Amino acid sequence: MRKFATVEMKEVKGSMQTFEKLYVDTICFIDEFEKEIKDNPQYSSEYKTILSYMNFIANGQMLPANKFRVLKGGKGDIKRFEFKSKNLRIYAIANSGGKLVIMGGFKKNQKRDINKLNEIAKDYINYITNQAI
User: Fold this and answer.
1) Of these four, 25, 31, 99, 133, which has the most CB atoms within 10 Å of its CB?
2) pLDDT per residue over 83-120, tens digit each?
3) Is the alpha carbon torsion for 58, 63, 68, 73 positive or negative?
């Protein structure tokens, strides 16, 4: 069984919502994604733009659907979100008091990444539910 932990995202500061990132068995998929794209100037710039979108949401501001949207069609009661740029996607779920950032990906892999998001989110919810018992 996977083990999960969350850590506050220092890059995102807000008065209305907190943003945390998820560790799965000591691996943080969003940190790994950031390492993957850091040497590409375009992707690095897009990632910084997405972080600014997260700050908007964390401070209670709205964004258009071409920058941030609620994903539809997921199983269960968990709300899933997608932050978007031209080439990049960052996936999160609703968490107590804000958002839990799960992973990042590329637009071209969107369908596969959303399936992975659903799997990780389901395992995380089962984990925290079992921890509460």
Assistant:
1) 99
2) 999 999 999 999 989 999 999 999 999 999 999 999 99
3) positive
pTM for the structure as a whole: 0.95
Please report how the helices 41-58 and 29-37 are oriented relative to each other, as an axis angle in degrees rounded to 10: 140
Residue 17: Cβ-neighbour burial (10 angstroms; 0-12, 13-18, 19+): middle
Identify which of 14, 86, 91 has the alpha carbon closest to the alpha carbon of residue 43. 86
Tokens 């539910």 belong to: 129
Report d(CA 97, CA 124) in Å as an integer: 17
Spatial CA neighbour of 92 closest among 43, 133, 51: 51
3-state secondary structure of 7: strand
What is the rounded distance in angstroms from the CA atom of residue 50 to the CA atom of residue 83? 6
